Fold:
Amino acid sequence: MATRQTASLARLMRAPAIILLLIWMIVPLGMTLYYSFLNYNLLNPAGTSWAGWFNYRYFYTDPAFFDAIRNTLVLVLGVLVITVVGGIAIALLIDKPIWGQGIVRILIISPFFVMPPVAALIWKNMIMHPSYGVFADIAKFFGAQPVDWFAQFPLTSIIIIVAWQWLPFATLILLTALQSLDGEQMEAAEMDGAGALSRFIHLTLPHMARAITVVILIQTIFLLGIYAEILVTTNGGPGNASTNLTYLIYRAARLNFDIGGAAAGGIIAVILANLVAIFLMRAVGKNLD
Amino acid sequence: MARAVSSRAKVGYTVAAWIVALLIFFPILYTIITSLKSEQEAIAGFDLIPSFTLESFRAVQTQNDYWKPFTNSVILSIGSTLLALVVAIPAAWAMAFSPTKRTKDILMWMLSTKMMPAVAVLVPIYLIFLRTGLMDTRIGLTVMLMLINLPIVVWMLYTYFREIPGEILEAARMDGATLRDEIIHVLTPMAIPGIASTLLLNVILAWNEAFWTIQLTTTNAAPLSAFIASFSSPQGLFWAKLSAASVLAIAPILILGWFSQKQLVRGLTFGAVK
Amino acid sequence: MNSTFRALLGATALCAVGGAAAAQDPVTLTIATVNNGDMIRMQSLTQDFTEKNPDITLEWVTLEENILRERVTTDIATNGGQYDVLTIGTYEVPIWARQDWLTPLDDLPAEYDVDDLVPAVREALSVDGTLYAAPFYAESAMVMYRTDLAEAAGVTIPDNPTWTDIKTAAEAMTDKDNEVYGICLRGKPGWGENMAFLTAMANSYGARWFDADWAPQFDSPEWQETLTDYLTLMNEYGPPGASSNGFNENLSLFQQGKCGMWIDATVAASFVTDPEDSTVADSVGFAQFPNKEGVDNHGNWLWAWNLAIPASSQKQDAAKTFVAWATSKEYTNMVAEAEGWRAAPPGTRTSLYENPEYQEAAPFAAMTLEAINSADTQKASVQDIPYTGGQFVAIPEFQGIGTMVGQTFSAALAGQTSADDALAAAQSATAREMARAGYPK
Structure:
């Protein structure tokens, strides 16, 4: 009896969140679906008409479409690799006894608190600027020609910026996992003569698998939607070199004011994102029990 | 730890950790330094010692009042977080303590709502905001930010609550505790750290949201993200002013983050630790 | 329901400016502006306005140009009514006016002296003879160059240079070891950035965007010549990182003495000659926008930042009062009094250019006025064209198309594609967009 009561209570408790999110999902999704079948340009509202599948065809035949998909994947994977590998390395390092651990940790997590456009502005103007940036100063110090980051390595530059923003998040989660590692087991392994590398591969890494999964999952959700950093730095260029899917939609919506096209792009993006999510859950979901 | 670490190793680790930490922090540090330079100094080449002038901060404040967007940022981030907690705590609670077969699916679905590119739904949302009179109001934006972060909040709370051992509840029930007692005296104290870190994370996320907060505001509800948008590519020499504006935009949340770092970390595991 | 909701808002969210205030009561105007120097100066001078109009309060929304354009376009197209005064460019004015989104400014007071507006600018802001926006400042484009460097390099730049003159001078002035680059031009992608320059340059080469049937012309020899010469100039004599340099970046470069020449908007003249910000203030010379030998066309660049009133604003009268004040002769005098004549908003009023004090303080005045007057936005190319606009094409689709083409050309500048590939990509992308938009109309 108690369980039935709890069950219905539980349903009641869950309801507000689920209903809110359901509305939050269905209303915009429904409107976006509707708009995606319209010829609707904000600058020419009088010309609105039914478009059928045209917007979809138009979006995926965009010469930038496949570049954008590729860039999206490169961006997500690049950032994931840097943050996971870097996060593990840094977590291992600051888990060691060091002086000033508190301050070190504060310094390392700081980028996480920086607003994305501000982060992009800082990197663009203070660090990577070919005339006034710190990288340029370093290059000049060594007598080299400064690198024009956003023109020569646009996607790499954006990956660096985004990875910088997410590295603290990965580090923190991986660090907490590391700290819950059983010290005695480690010592036993050490007694048995297992080297540091083998201990890392056979004990530490499996223990962190779950944390790594969480980092990958959460970051992927955020990384698929990256656009502010691109908007502030390269505007998706040069050419389409740093245009990802979200930015392509941004371009349709905010530059062409093509609401129908942007809506179609949004629907395509949602479908692709869900494919990625399903793939991810298949691949790493088991780690989440 | 039982093992003694030689002090030489400790020195090595310390040096390495500090180098890494300073490298990661450097862009922020350099921005702070640049904000204390004059415009001429700012472009004069690499220099870590500013002249400690407040000229740029003054220029920024003259151009755009800082306090109004600051107040809005505070209200929006805290308001949306509290609202999200009110909705999310019961939901996460129920999911953690009376899970059904579909609990995990629901969680995944909640997260997937975050995958819709915001810009694709801008016009529908803009129209809704206009028709309902929510445009450029704090309340409208608060609800907006709450909805955006709700999935993460639910998930984070859920993973934290799930770690609370069920036996404690049973023991309390044996002692004849009512549901109310159970929540107030047993669970709440155990849940507080998780709620606190969720709260902090959500405040950070809401503070840093920079799409809707610009698109759906004009003057009344515009927070610091809109403030920074007026400095992003001005005319002429702007490095010091841009730095000052950036420092102003990130300082409050950075300081909050520094002070509450321990609380933040405690719950920021998303169930990563078993 | 709506009113209770509003009341609720008022109570909970301290939303003081909530519902529609009664008409005679104090009015609050929400003004959207771009974050450039002149607009920010205007904000600091508004005390005069609020003293004269104590019942009008001004609220400012200052945004970066692109975000401003996005915000304002969304609002006006959805009839949002969030703004009472908009800062918009010459590109938007005719397009929006045709949609009936802007309030006609045909009843400005006599003392506003609308006939004093520079004719080319007034024409650009009118549709069928009705004025739809008041110009705050206007610009054409011209060559700004370092007289000291030119002298040292032994070159002279005539008042009406050809592109050959420019190339010769750029080569002579370039001294990369000392970080002096012969020429700085826009390379940052965007219809209002590199494409503004490149369209003007193409005009001066005799090229055009579209033929009479709206077919894009990037496959024409004129465009090929334009792009090839642009790339040569930039690659050989331009600064590093040119593909991310827009107006602002080049302005800083020039102010710090890193550019021998800079061909850009005439408003820059007052910044590069400002001794406070510019290290080269006393050695700047000016010349007309170059042309190609045998082509009688100097680019036809004409731009103005204007104040306009959206038809959706509920505060038309107060908004008109403000617009008239901010673009009046008195405002110009006020700026002159506060910051000197050199800082007066240029390009909008004939009377300013007849003012001996201004002529004395602004060595660039004559050249600016000549550039503006010679800009023909009704027929920008020597060939037949179906569109108006100088350094842009005045159709709604141009923002998107221009930026896309700008991206390809920027990629060519960054060395990622060849000029030919960039032109081919521009051609097919433009044809695609135009077909979608239903041209030829």
About this structure: Residues 21-132+303-361 of chain C form a domain with the D-Maltodextrin-Binding Protein; domain 2 fold (CATH 3.40.190.10). Chain C touches chain B at residues 2, 5-6, 9, 12-17, 30, 32, 35-37, 40, 43-44, 59-65, 67, 70-71, 74, 78-80, 82-83, 246-248, 251-252, 255-256, 271, 277 (CB under 8 Å). The two ends of chain C are 45 Å apart (CA to CA).
